[in-house]
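Q: Fold this one first, please.
A: Sequence and structure below.
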Amino acid sequence: MIQFPNNFYWGAATSSYQVEGNNVNADWWPWEILAGKEKSGPACRHYEFYEQDFDLAKSLNHNAHRLSIEWSRIEPKEGEFSGQAVQHYIDVIKALRSRGIEPMVTLHHFTNPIWFSDSGGWVDPGSVKRFLRYCDVVTRALAPHVHFWFTINEPTIYFSHAYLWGMWPPQARSFLKTRSVRDNMVDAHIGVYRLMHKIYKELNIPSPSVSFAHHMQAIVGCDQGLKNRLAVAMRVQLYNLEILDHLTKAKALDFIGVNYYSRHLVDVHSWWIGDLLMQTCKDNHHPLKKNFLGWDIYPEGLALVLLSLKKYNLPVIIAENGICTTDDNERWEYIQSHLRNVHRAMSQGVNVAGYLYWSLMDNFEWAYGYAPRFGLIEIDYNTHLRTVRESAKKYADVCRTGAVT
């Protein structure tokens, strides 16, 4: 048995577009129709049922919950802010606080207001200013109730999927646009970080703890050949550490938020730069069990990722870690094995402060639609009935005791 500290944050995560439903002013809403994807529609109706969902989280002994604010609700038209939407999120945060659950708030989780996308989105040089204006409104409203903030969720996934590979709106497929989005998101994070600290000081509230949620993979070579070792080193730096290096140098991180799901298996056959940066194993070397979406299940990789962060000397919160599966026993095995590896990294000096499972409930998984089931709580999408899974009950014991067998 392993034991986590008494002050550890235990909980789960959600994002607004994936659970709230009917976010008609977000850019994904029209794109789902244009791209012929499954429609998000009412999602989990969490916008209505958040009190019920937080009652369930409390019954499962969660003491932290990560959620996101839907920008397109707050600012449905450029420069026009909805007082009703702002008040809704104040009520949501207070509902968590009243249950003894620490809110951890994300300001951007993949979706943008339609007007923002129509004006050029994150490629446009004015995007940073527009985002800061929205963040100013939200921060001033929620600052009295929120200590932990994530500015942007998985910027590397956003710009690669939306602007490099063209799998998400606006399906740009442009390296130059990808670089612009990357640079603007980094500048936006730094700007919001400084803005938040300024606002908290103005309001005479103790300084907030601000980060972003960084998608990190365990990057592993098929063998220890020179090409693979070089490729692994290059990819670790480019994909996992480059943004962290930039933001720590700018003194714009109070902690590091980590989203971890899987490994990236490297098998390079030439010295061409494209292969060194992108070629993966296609020959099923070192096969592992996979989740519903075909991602390798590699719990040891979470320890590898966490140990790579030791040099930054910052606290770490695991902002997402989870599995989509039709077998709930696999979900519990996944949680248990990953927590063992979190503890292993902690025993080697990594300051991990919390673990948030993805997700509190089944939800709309972007371009994959509703088929992948990540939730601790099962959602019947016909009736919106919530059913607590057995894995959630086992995880609840961990949340209560801090002990993992």
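Q: Good. Now the second chain.
A: Here it is, same layout.
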Amino acid sequence: MADRRFLKLTIPNDVSFLPIAQKCVREVSIMFGFAGEDIYKIELALEEGITNIIKHAFESSEQNTFDIICEKIPLGIKIVLKEKGIPYDPKQVPEFSPLSDASPDNTGGLGTFLLKKSMDVVSFHNLGNEGKETHLIKYLPAKNIKDYFPASELAVEAPIKEMPAVITEKIEYDVRPMQPHESIEISKGAYKSHGYTFFDEHIYYPDQIVEMNKTGELVSVVAVTKDRKFMGHVALHYPEPESPVAEYTFVFVNPEYRGQGCLKRLTDCLFELPQKRLLGIYSYSVANHPFTQKTILKCGFNDCGIQLATSPATWEFKGIDSDSTQRISVVLGYKYTKKPEPVNIYAPQAHKEIIEKLYKNIGAENKYVNPAGAGPTFETKESSINTRIYATEETAEIFVIKYGSNVVNEIKIILKELCLRHIASITLFLNLEDPNTYFMAPQIEGLNFFFSGILPKTKNGDSLVFQYLNNVKLDYDKIVAYSELAKEILDYIKKRDPNAA
């Protein structure tokens, strides 16, 4: 029996087929629960996406086809436009500003602008020989936490300078997996701890939290008093459906319950839950105060990198005194859930010593080898590269899945597009299990990327992490590194950051 959550439509690169595609996707969207203005926005985005492909991906006289794939996802619909046309050059599409003169001669980039305004997530994926994909995601309407509670109940007091627990006597409480009705309290707790500055807005939508837990994308654990008052929450979030690693995230304890040992118990419970595919867990600890770094170390994580300026300075920490004068950096931590099998690591010569030290710190015993050949080997000219953009954070991630001979130029093009979009902090992941990384990493560093750390078991193997900062003013003296190794990593990065020099 066919999967009712998935539909694939193949059409010619002929604009006259656009209405057929729109009607098909419209009916699928209605089947998936969309209505009203959201249907219009999906149709508009589809029109812009298909028009872009027909105009730019194929020669004017070329007869070809491309695919439209509709998939029901836990929170809405995902539309994939897949084609094998002319390699896409983002430099050809200017950045459209709605504040500029909207004359017929000044609409460059308008289609892409409208596409991004209509959908919740828009991303472009270069798959090398497999062509290119445009991913369009639209979420179903859901209630925000502000729709459940009056503003007076969500209001919090001004941050206090010290952090004594409001409830000083020790209380009894239970720690267990979340129950669906508690998702409202999770959203409310996130607001009470961080206002509306949390990096992932899903946390503010209770219905979405429930759905993500149903599908396994999110695994939530809560602490609740004996009289059923919500205390705190931690979770594992899987970045990809079949990912072997998960992020330890959405971590908060309501201010009145801090000091009860709640976070440690929450974390222990979370890590004891059975997770069959899980090989490792990573975490990001903010580096504008030491408290989360201390907690992470107590939970069994070990430092393996530092990523600079990954979040806006406006991020809030209710009840915690921290520096807010520059973008927030984070310390990357890692914890294996199973003893890792040794793998061949092709560490670039310039960073081999620090890479070995970081692997040793997180408990991995790998083989550090040099490639057999005298230079890189490529099967194709085009690389396979995925890019994720987090607009609210003004940050992006670039994953080099497979190297092509044109990889440096391809990264350069992506980098230019991200800089034009005012992305402040860009993180690049290179596969340390690929011999080409040994040769290509120094060339990529020539684009002003610099060493940031390692991250095992990502979507493209154990990763070497580089960073690029786009006109970010950063005072290294304001970055708080708690452990001795974190201090060493920060000093190593500073010496290689071209911006610091």
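Q: Anything worth noting on the second one?
A: The chain has three domains: 6-139, 145-278, 344-496.
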